[in-house]
Design a protein that fits this description.
The chain is built from twelve helices and 17 strands. It is α/β, with parallel strands linked by helices. The protein folds into two domains: about 140 residues, Alpha-Beta Complex (Aspartate Aminotransferase, domain 1); about 250 residues, Aspartate Aminotransferase, domain 2 (3-Layer(aba) Sandwich), CATH 3.40.640. Helix 3 packs antiparallel against helix 9, helix 4 packs parallel to helix 9 and helix 5 runs parallel beside helix 6. The longest helix is centred in the C-terminal third of the chain and has 27 residues. The protein binds pyridoxal-5'-phosphate (PLP). Pyridoxal-5'-phosphate binds next to helix 5.
């Protein structure tokens, strides 16, 4: 008889978003007085850049002709040179030197953040920020590295509280972790780490031979100087860090699916090159991203495609500004939204996350994300996203202002 991976049975019921969906559908069925505005899930709404569409159309036509048809990609692990070189050059423009064979293209940062666990032994101690993007936690739980789920926490994880008091950036923990997830700009708090903050963790990881898994899916939203777009801007990172990036939020590829992971050759643990291990893993378990999508991603990094995509990013950041201004004006305490598309809002009057979520849904017909769903330190907050339309964002803010008057 087959035995299943028992770690799955330890996972608490459902991912956060199904529960939000359930409550929203139930509310919708009760004939709410106003249209519901969704500011919960972090999906984009702006269409793809014209340069990206043009590249996709051209690539689609190539696929329809025998002379230009492409099957399996035989270049590095299913990633065409044209895209890896474009990614390398984009890093160079940002002042970071990455070799093209340190870049691995995939169908998403979510997949890579989860799959990277294949490289690490089950006994490693994992540290996550609290609150945190749930994928880091659940994938480690599935692999058996998280221990048991008790009283809202995993027994083997090191939780790094990110609170208003520490500026939503974690202090070094007492128990030394082997694997450290850092996400900057952060989902859900919207906080972005500066050079010195990242340097503290890079030095710590090198000292303890830990590995930092750095998620910079939102780097395109950084507006302030002094905030690194890549962990590899930080001296010493090449010997301790892996970076995940995505076209999802920078270029609206949430439906297209394309991302990449960078593993420097200097990253050696237990005498093994993590870059070589990932190369082996990708060659074994992955056959690459669709040719049309790789051409689309290349176009997104072209000067024209990037400028067009950044227009969308600026559109979202303007929504974030509108949200910050309105909520602050309504007497709420808000964080984020300057270098990130997320606004982390303190629930008023000591309300809990789900309580404030329900109030905003019931009385203003607005869907948010309860902070408690991202970890214990998220209790008392809700996350709003700036990915909606400008019109809906303004309408939602008018409703909240009226509600809290
Ligand atoms: N990392 C973070 C922090 C995210 O918030 C998200 C998506 O919301 C992802 C990764 C996933 O990106 P992708 O669409 O490339 O899988």
């Amino acid at each position: 008889m087959v035995h299943v991976n028992k770690n799955f049975q330890k996972l608490p019921g459902g991912y956060l978003f199904p529960e939000i969906g359930r409550r929203t559908r139930a509310f919708e069925a009760s004939h709410p007085p106003m249209p519901i505005i969704r500011m919960g899930i972090g999906d984009v709404t702006r269409p793809l850049a014209p340069a990206v569409i043009e590249a996709m159309q051209k690539a689609t036509e190539e696929m329809g002709r025998a002379e230009t048809f492409r099957g399996y990609c035989e270049e590095t692990n299913g990633a065409y040179d044209f895209l890896r070189f474009a990614i390398r050059d984009a890093y160079r423009r940002g002042g970071v030197d990455i070799a093209d064979d340190e870049i691995f293209v995939s169908d998403g940062a979510k997949s890579d953040c989860g799959n990277i666990g294949d490289l690490f032994d089950v006994d490693n101690v994992v540290a996550v920020c609290d609150p945190v993007y749930p994928v880091y936690v659940d994938t480690n739980a599935m692999a058996g590295r998280a221990g048991d789920y008790e009283d809202g926490k995993w027994t083997n994880l090191v939780y790094l509280p990110c609170t208003a008091e520490n500026g939503f950036f974690p202090a070094l923990p007492e128990r030394v972790p082997d694997i450290i997830y850092i996400c900057s700009p952060n989902n859900p708090t919207g906080a972005a780490a500066d050079y010195d903050q990242l340097k503290t963790w890079v030095d710590y990881a090198n000292e303890h031979q830990s590995v930092i898994l750095f998620d910079s899916a939102y780097e395109a939203f950084i507006t302030e100087p002094g905030i690194p777009h890549s962990i590899f801007e930080v001296e010493g990172a090449r010997t301790c860090a892996i970076e995940f990036r995505s076209f999802s939020k920078s270029s609206g590829f949430t439906g297209n699916r394309c991302a990449y992971t960078v593993i420097p050759k200097e990253l050696i643990r237990d005498g093994a090159s993590l870059r070589d291990m990932w190369n082996r893993r990708m060659g074994t378990k992955f056959n690459g991203v669709a040719y049309v999508i790789q051409r689309a991603a290349e176009a997104a990094l072209s000067p024209e495609g990037w400028e067009q995509s950044m227009e969308n990013v600026r559109y979202y950041l303007n929504n974030a500004r509108v949200i910050r201004k309105a909520l602050t004006g309504a007497g709420l305490t808000v964080y984020g939204g300057v270098n990130a598309p997320y606004i982390w809002c303190r629930a008023p009057g000591g309300m809990g996350s789900w309580e404030f979520f329900d109030k905003l849904l019931r009385d203003a017909c607005i869907v948010t994300t309860p902070g408690a769903g991202f970890g214990p330190s998220g209790e008392g907050y809700v996350r709003l996203t700036a990915f909606g339309t400008y019109e809906n964002t303004c309408e939602a803010m008018e409703r909240i202002k009226k509600l809290l008057k």
